[in-house]
Amino acid sequence: MGDSECVPERPVGPGRPRWRWREWLPLAGLTLVVLAGAGLWLAGRREVAGLLWAAATVLTLVPATGSMLRQLWHRRFGVDVVAVLALAGALVVGEYLAGAVVALMLATGRSLETYAQHRATRDLRALLARAPRSARRRRPGGGIEQVPLDVVAAGDRLLVGPGDVVPVDGTVEEAATLDESVVTGESRLVARAAGERVASGVVNAGAGFGLRATRNAAGSTYAGIVRLAEEATARKAPMVRVADRYAAAFVPFTLGLAGLAGLLAGDLVRAVAVLVVATPCPLLLATPIAIVSGLSRAARRGVLVRDGGSLELLGRARTLLLDKTGTLTAGRPRAAETVTAPGGDRDEVLRLAASVEQLSPHVLAAALVRQARERGLPLTEPTEVTEEPGRGVRGRVDGRVVRVGQLADGLPDWAREVRERAERTGRSTVWVSGGQGPLGVILLEDPVRPDAPRTVRRLRRAGLTRVVMLTGDRPRVADQVARVVGVDDVVARCPPREKADRVRQEARRAVTVMVGDGVNDAPALAEAHVGVAMGATGARASADVADAVLTVDRLDRLADAVEIARRARRIAVQSATVGMGLALVAMIVAAAGRLPPVAGAFLQEGIDVVVILNALRALGGGPQPARDGEDQATPVPSGDGSTGSG
C-alpha cells in the first residue's frame, strides 16, 4: 500500500532501537485469525470462518481508508487506493478469505519493512549509542574534573582514559594507541605520536593520554558523523517518490483493467481478482529498503551519505571533479629539504623555525614542528611572538630574533637559486631569517596520496567517464599531479568562484560529483549533484554543505561509496522491475478469469516477500579491501604557493 500505511508511524532511526514485539503484533494477530478461520472452514463451520475473515478485512480496511483519505486530502495519489478497493471489493463480493489474505499481506509488508530498516540502520544507530556525553578536563591549577561535553572548548586540555571514546577533535600530547574502526572502518590499531591530530569518536586502546582540544564537541568529526547518520535514516529514499509518481500511471491502468474485466465477464469477482494481485505494498517498499541498505553499507566503509537521494545520484554519476590540495594530495606539507646560508647548520635552522612556529595554527607551521620533533630537535618556547598575515611569524628564541615566512626582494645569490629551484619542482618555501638576513630556507612538498591513481582507475571501471582536477595552484604543479593521478582535464589557478562555475557547467552535461576538503571548496560542493567532503581532515564548512563525507582520510573510500551506490541502485531497480512485471502478468491472468481472488492474494504475497528479501541483498557484497601493494604509487612533490588554495 502507500507509504503512509506500510511505513511505521515512527521512523526507524539511528537512536534507540524500535524493533520490539509490538511491531509483530498486527501480523501475528492477522495470522491467527486467518488460520483460525481455516480451521473452522475445514471443520464445516464455514459461516463462522467467513465472519472471522471478514473481521480481519474490516480491521485492516478502516485504517487503510483513513490513510488513503489523508493522502488524497494532501493531494498525494498513491497505490494505497488499489489496496483499499481490493479490501472493499472482497467484502462486497463475499470473498472474505481473499480480503483476509490481502490484509495479511499488508501486515507482512509492514513487518518486513520494519525488520529491513532495523537491519539496514543498525550500524548507524551504533554511532549514537556510543557517543560520549562528558569529558575529563584538566583544571588550570591542577587536578581533573568531569564536565559535560558541550562545555569543552578549543584549547582545553583533556585526559582520555583507557577504553574511553575520544570526545572531541584534538592533538595528542603523548603517544597513544587508538582503535579507529568506528570512524575509519579499519580494524587494526593505530599508533599516534605526540602532536598528531586525532578525530573524535575513536577509542583509546592503550594507556591514558592527554589531549588538547582543537574543536568543541559540536564542530568535531564524530558529531558531524552522527548528524549525517540521523539525516540519512530520517529521509525518504528517492525510489519511494518514484513509486508515488509511478502510481499516477499504475492506478488508472489497474482500475481500467479491473473495470474492463468485470464488465466484459459480467462478474464483479473478476474485477476484485485484478485488484487483489495489484496490491504491491511491500514491493514498493523494497526499493527504499535497498537504498537504505546501501547507506548502511557505505557507513561501514567510512562514508556517511546524507540521504537516499544522494546515494542514488552517486550511483548514476558520470563526471568527477576533484580538488587537489588535501584531496588528491595529502594536504599535510612535509619538510623535504633544508638549505642554509653558506656556513649554516641545517638542524639549527629547522629548530629555530619550529620553535617560533609552535604557537601558529598555520598548516605549514604544523609541518615544521612535526619535522623537528621527528628529528629529535629540542624546541624552545618562543617569546614576543607576533604574526603578520601574508608575511609570517616573528619571535625571540634563546634571545635571538627569528622571522619565519616570506622574504621581500633583494635576496642573496644563494637564496635566489633556491627559490628558482623550488618553483621548478613545485615546492613551497619557508624562509628563516635573523637580524642579519636569511639564515636558510625550508622546502616543503605535499605528495600525491598513494591511493589516488588506483582510486581514479576504480572510479572509471565503476562508470565515471570524465575526471577533472580543479586547483588554485600553479599550472606546473597541477600538471605534475594530473599526470600521476590520470585525470582527463586540469584547471589551474582556479579560485573558489571559478571552481563553482566549472562544477555548474559540468553538472549541466551529466550527473556530477565534486570532492574537496577546504573552506574554499564549499561553494563548489554545493553546486554539484553530489558534493563529497574529506571530513577526516577537511574544514567543517565543506562538510556542512556536502552530500557525503569521507570520515577516514583515504580517497579510495570514494570508490567504495560509488560501487556501493551503483549496486544498491541496481538492486532497487531490479526489485521494482521484476516485482511489478510479475504483478502485471498476474493481473492479466486474473482479468482473463484464470486467477481467482484467493489464489491471487497468496500469489501476490509471495511476490512481495521475495522482492523485499532480494532488496536486502544490498546490505552485503560491495567493494573488497585492497590487496597488499595495490596502493603503492610514486609520490610526486607538489605544493601550493599559498596554503589552502586547493
Question: What order do the helices and strands come in, and which of them pair?
Answer:
Layout: H1 3-6, H2 25-42, H3 46-73, H4 80-92, H5 96-129, E1 134-138, E2 144-148, E3 157-160, E4 170-172, E5 176-179, H6 181-184, E6 190-192, E7 197-198, E8 203-204, E9 209-213, H7 221-234, H8 238-265, H9 268-277, H10 281-300, E10 303-305, H11 308-316, E11 319-323, H12 324-328, E12 334-340, H13 346-357, H14 363-374, E13 383-388, E14 392-397, E15 400-405, H15 413-425, E16 428-434, E17 437-445, H16 452-462, E18 466-470, H17 475-485, E19 489-491, H18 496-509, E20 512-516, H19 522-527, E21 530-533, H20 540-545, E22 548-550, H21 556-591, H22 597-615
Parallel strand pairs: 11-18, 11-20, 18-19, 20-21, 21-22
Antiparallel strand pairs: 1-2, 1-3, 3-9, 4-7, 4-9, 5-6, 5-8, 10-22, 12-17, 13-14, 14-15, 15-16, 16-17
Protein name: P-type E1-E2 ATPase/heavy metal translocating P-type ATPase
Main location: membrane
Family: Belongs to the cation transport ATPase (P-type) (TC 3.A.3) family. Type IB subfamily.
Mean pLDDT: 77
Secondary-structure-derived class: alpha+beta
Termini separation comes to 50 Å
**Number of β-strand runs:** 22
CATH architecture heading of the domain at 294-330 and 449-564: 3-Layer(aba) Sandwich
Low-confidence stretches: 1-19, 232-237, 625-646
CATH class of the domain at 294-330 and 449-564: Alpha Beta
